[in-house]
TrEMBL record:
PROSITE patterns (alphabetical): UVRD_HELICASE_ATP_BIND, UVRD_HELICASE_CTER
Gene Ontology biological process terms from the UniProt entry: DNA replication; recombinational repair
UvrD-like helicase C-terminal domain ranges (all copies): 287-565
Family in the record: Belongs to the helicase family. UvrD subfamily.
Chain ranges of the UvrD-like helicase ATP-binding domain: 8-286
Record's protein name: DNA helicase II
Length: 725
């Protein structure tokens, strides 16, 4: 067979990795050097040259999107399908194993996945039930504690907290939480891994089955694996599997979630004969982008050390824009994207990257105003939106009455007159009897403990859920979903809310029906699961990735973290300010500062041709105006790779001067109006305010003013009778 297409077009080092003898390998290389490409070619090589069966190959990546892309590329190289091959995320693969062996894993067949929101809701209830003050014992912290312990592979009985009263309390919460999850058949994200690891550890026949099956294991983005993931990999690999890991220590950005860069050196020790292959040629970015990112990362002390070069052109300089505020920043970014589109560029080729999810809103609004479609990865993901979670909770109740998290979510949504007191009674009864909320409710109703009105409301809920199941038993999943949205009262509830937001929620509910209609139960679980539980697992696992139609041309918005592994011709990194990026807290701690710098490196190296970096002098953060200096990361870039973008209006506040970029450039159109950004003005009707934005020129020009007490308004300069103050 001709296999030249598997190595043609690769450089020598890449070829060496793809065509290496069977063995254990670490491919260590910087961003854009073709690590993922090598992994994909290696998999095809194993099957076509080493005659490995697809059934003997397992590939692990970091996101569902990456996994789907990888499978697609492998099939392309194979000129066909690669069925039998396992390709997924750690969570996805563990989920699959647990489904197949739920009895051995001590889980009910229809176990459901608890996402972080549900987890916190459940924890809040348990913390209350322990008579702890939520102010001192916040659910969020409990979830950090529990997830961190699980990531370390620790169950409550492994932890000795007798000398630490604070930890002792968290431990109690952990134990209660685990009990509640086990009782209801709920599995959180960390549990997927831990439970699967324990399954392999304790059940010899299962372990031997997988160890015999997967002779080839390949892992992308290895630098971000945590302890339990590493332990799981070792367990899956056993003594005979050949493992290839690829990674970049400079791109380790999940230390805060327990990822261990040290896993790279552990791999070299633990896997016999493991060899390191280094790739040094970058194929992704222009010379300027590459030079600047290399320069930046050199400020980190702890590195395994790598150098990257490119044959590509120097390309355009990196543009730095210093915005007046976040609105000005968004306007700038959207203007550039619009111009790109006008020149025939695809929106899909543009990405806006930010440090925190909350930063997306202003950008979204500017994009909507400009009529530019966009897609958000992460953040308020589709499956995490309130109305979607409400509908899913009803569906979960249909599948599993013992799902306490779902019960809590919808027992009084839409409102049916169930007060906090009644709920508290149900919770207490559940706790005292070691029962689920559903069981406790039915018992209380039977024993006629509840007052007339409360009992009626609760009975209505119980009957509703039973009826939803009975009525939809014969329906296809999407009909069932539609029926549930109608008859649960959710749709009517949101219709009654009126307004744009409510309409968006209804649109989303409709989108959910579409999602269930498009959903196909994965072949490998068709026997074990109903379409409903398969869909619910899918919703929990894939929350939001690829929410919009994949074929729509849309600008891509995402956090820097979720941009890992991806590439775009044009990239905007926004909010690159001290206090935002690096954040205040991480700036004070060397280790965390280095991780932030790696995150900056990840962001910059996503760009293929053009990179914009923006920062705002003033930004509203949690309702407060904050003044920020340009980030030290901008100062760490070599000046000869940068250009300052000059298009902003004159800013009169002298305090605004930052960094080495001058701020005095004027924007002619705007100046003709006689106003400038940041200027205080007086309006006859709305009173005093500050100019925060503008658009248009001459007669058409409009300004946006933040009035004290009257909110933010757009005004046509010509008619507004604004007076400078
Ligand atoms: P990251 O660290 O960001 O995950 P990576 O090392 O995985 O990056 P890839 O995504 O595999 O890098 O490759 C970066 C880009 O370079 C891709 O567009 C890929 O197709 C291209 N590329 C890789 N190797 C070659 C090659 N030998 N010839 C041409 N293009 C290549
Ligand atoms: Mg990659």
């Amino acid at each position: 067979m001709d296999v030249s297409h598997l190595i043609d077009g690769l450089n020598d080092k890449q070829r060496e990795a793809v065509a290496a003898q069977l063995g254990n390998y670490l491919v260590l290389a910087g961003a854009g050097s073709g690590k993922t490409r090598v992994l994909v070619h290696r998999i095809a090589w194993l099957m076509q040259v080493e005659y490995a069966s697809p059934f003997s190959v397992m590939a692990v990546t970091f996101t569902n999107k990456a996994a789907a892309e990888m499978r697609g590329r492998i099939e392309q190289l194979m000129h066909g399908t690669a069925s039998g091959l396992w390709c997924g995320t750690f969570h996805g693969l563990c989920h699959r194993i647990l489904r197949a062996h739920h009895l051995d894993a001590n889980l009910p067949q229809d176990f459901q996945i608890l996402d972080s929101d549900d987890q916190q809701r459940l924890l809040r209830r348990l913390i209350k039930a322990q008579n702890l003050d939520e102010k001192h014992w916040p659910a969020r912290q409990a979830s950090w504690y529990i997830n961190a312990k699980k990531d370390e592979g620790l169950r409550p009985h492994h932890i000795d907290a007798q000398f630490d009263p604070v930890e002792k309390t968290w431990l109690r919460v952990y134990a209660a939480y685990q009990e509640a999850c086990d009782r209801a058949g709920l599995v959180d994200f960390a549990e997927l891994l831990l439970r699967c690891h324990e399954l392999l550890r304790d059940k010899e026949h299962i372990r031997e089955h997988y160890q015999a099956r997967f002779q080839h294991i390949l892992v992308d983005e290895f630098q971000d694996t945590n302890n339990i993931q590493y332990a799981w990999l070792r367990m899956m690999a056993g003594n005979s599997a050949k493992v290839m890991i690829v990674g970049d220590d400079d791109q380790s950005i999940y230390g805060w979630r327990g990822a261990k860069i040290e896993n790279i050196s552990r791999f070299l020790q633990d896997f016999p004969g493991a060899e390191t292959i280094r790739l040094e040629q970058n194929y992704r970015s222009t010379g300027n982008i590459l030079k600047a990112s290399n320069h930046l990362i050199e400020n980190n002390a702890e590195r395994m050390g790598k150098s990257l070069w490119t044959e590509g052109q120097e390309g355009e300089l990196i543009s730095v824009y210093s915005a007046f505020n976040e609105l000005d920043e968004a306007r700038f970014v959207v203007g550039k994207i619009k111009a790109w589109q006008d020149e025939g560029g695809a929106l899909n080729d543009t990405a806006i990257l930010y440090r925190n999810n909350a930063q997306s809103r202003v950008l979204e609004e500017a994009l909507i105003q400009a009529g530019l479609p966009y897609r958000i990865y992460g953040g308020m993901r589709f499956f995490e939106r309130q109305e979607i979670k409400d509908a899913l909770a009803y569906l979960r109740m249909i599948g599993n009455r013992f799902d306490d998290a779902a019960f809590e979510r919808v027992v009084n949504t839409p409102a049916r007159g169930l007060g906090d007191r009644t709920l508290e009674t149900i919770r207490l009864a559940a706790r005292d009897r070691g029962a689920t909320m559903w069981e406790a409710s039915n018992q209380l109703l039977e024993e006629q403990v509840l007052a007339g009105r409360a009992a009626n409301s609760l009975r209505r809920f119980v009957e509703l859920v039973n009826a939803l199941e009975d009525d939809t038993r014969e329906m296809a999943l999407f009909q069932q979903t539609d029926y549930v949205i109608q008859h649960s009262g959710l749709r009517a509830m949101y219709e009654a809310e009126k307004g744009e937001k409510a309409q968006a929620r209804i649109d989303n509910l409709e989108e959910l029906v579409t999602a269930t209609r498009q959903f196909e139960v994965p072949e490998e679980v068709q026997e074990e699961m109903s379409p409903l539980s398969a869909f619910l697992s899918h919703a929990a696992l894939e929350a939001g990735e690829g929410q919009a139609d994949e074929f729509d041309d849309a600008a891509q918005l995402m956090t820097l973290h979720s941009a890992k592994g991806l590439e775009f011709p044009m990239v905007f990194m926004v909010g690159v300010e001290e206090g935002m990026f690096p954040s205040q807290m991480s700036a004070e701690e060397a280790g965390r500062l280095e991780e932030e710098r790696r995150l900056c490196y990840v962001g910059m190296t996503r760009a293929m041709k053009k990179l914009y970096i923006t920062h705002a002098e003033m930004r509203r953060v949690y309702g407060k105006d904050m003044f920020h200096k340009a980030s030290r990361f901008i100062r760490e870039l070599p000046e000869d790779c940068l250009e300052e973008v000059r298009m902003r209006a004159k800013v009169s506040r002298p305090a605004a001067a930052t960094g080495r970029f001058s701020q005095t450039q004027t924007q002619e159109n705007f100046n003709q109006t006689g106003f400038s950004l940041g200027q205080r003005v007086q309006h006859p009707k709305f009173g005093e305010g500050t100019i925060i934005n503008f658009e248009g020129s001459g007669q058409q020009s409009r300004v946006q003013v933040a009035f004290n007490g009257e909110g933010i308004k757009w005004l046509v300069t010509q008619y507004a009778k604004l007076e400078a103050m």
